[in-house]
Design a protein that fits this description.
With 324 residues, the protein is α/β, with parallel strands linked by helices. Helices cover 33% and strands 26% of the residues. The chain is globular, with a radius of gyration of 20 Å.
């Protein structure tokens, strides 16, 4: 397959906030065939400071200026979710490919609008569910798919955080901005990983509550996914009395478990024998995924997380929040 005419991806970051400092921004500079050209933030002083600290040539406080830059052929959108659909559609119509932070949008209707813009423009878009490409997550996927633990019969998802330790930034606990609270901000990564491996479940039941009254969003979520041959059981509290987090996959011959939101080894137990598998995360955790995005943009390799794939976790949140 012949590469596209562009020999490199020339990025503009729309929203150079906290997530771009270490997790993602440097990956755009370090990945092969990738260059960070310009950054945008509504606060011009902060945009200028970011550009200076990260050795980026240009900065702006205006979205249209960034989208009109002729050197830029791809936009990384790292703003809160309530602006994702608008900015993604504007970027696509400006002729840019898009890497869009998760969740893809606030709801399935906004997903429809993004997918319509993709069809209209012929552009490319990836949703930044970067755990799909991290080595330890790929190893866990391999363990599940190659039969190491036998046929899967149960997956447990647990995330407990004390209220004082849970992310309580205003937009991350404002449903109008984030589509929910900490559950949406964090656990959509887990929901995406589950659909990446197993597709959409046949049935979904869920319960959400606000138990602490500390903010508008939910702080407790439980859910059951029926995959016909196995079940996923999720229990998440962001006003708990302790901090605990793991995904445990039970099979006929053993189990595999790992933390999804902290540096974590894989604990693999087969026929009663425990093994620890250490695969440390890279310094910039988005980089393996970014490299796949670049290959998709330039070489037409498979999309590492399409709009259609990204919408599945958004639809699952809607199903969970719909209640019993």
């Amino acid at each position: 397959m012949q590469p596209k005419q562009d020999s490199a991806v020339h990025w503009g970051i729309l929203g150079c906030g906290e997530v771009t400092e270490v997790k993602s921004g440097p990956a755009l500079q370090k990945a092969p065939r990738s260059q960070l050209v310009s950054v945008m933030r509504r606060d011009g002083d902060k945009a200028a400071d970011y550009a200076k600290r990260h050795n980026v040539a240009r900065w702006t406080d205006d979205v249209d200026t960034l989208l009109a830059d002729p050197e830029i052929n791809a936009i990384y959108i790292a703003t809160p979710p309530n602006s994702h659909a608008d900015y993604a559609i504007r970027a696509l119509k400006a002729g840019k490919n898009v890497l869009l932070e998760k969740p893809i949008a606030l709801n399935s209707e906004e997903c429809n609008s993004i997918e319509a813009a993709l069809r209209e423009t012929g552009g490319k878009l990836c949703v930044a569910y970067y755990r799909r490409a991290l080595p330890r997550f790929e190893k866990l996927r391999e363990i599940v798919e190659d039969g190491t633990i036998g046929k899967v019969n149960l997956i447990e998802v647990r995330q407990f955080k004390q209220a004082s330790n849970a992310p309580n930034q205003s937009w991350k606990t404002d449903p109008k901005v984030g589509g929910g609270g900490n559950f949406v901000d964090m656990q959509t990564h887990t929901l995406d990983w589950l659909t990446y491996l197993f597709g959409k479940p046949a049935k979904v039941q869920g319960l959400k509550k606000n138990t602490s009254g500390l903010y508008a969003a939910e702080d407790f979520v439980s859910y059951l996914f029926d995959y016909e041959t196995f079940t996923v059981s999720g229990l998440c509290s962001y006003a708990a009395t302790r901090d605990e987090e793991a995904v445990i996959i039970h099979g006929e011959k053993g189990s595999a478990s790992m933390g999804f939101f902290r540096p974590s080894d894989i604990t693999l137990t087969v026929d009663g024998v425990e093994q620890i598998i250490a695969l440390p995360d890279p310094a910039h955790v988005h980089q393996p995924f970014v490299e796949r995005v670049i290959e998709y943009f330039l070489d037409d390799t498979p999309n590492p997380c399409s709009a259609e794939a990204g919408r599945l976790s958004t639809e699952l949140v809607e199903d969970i929040f719909a209640g019993l």
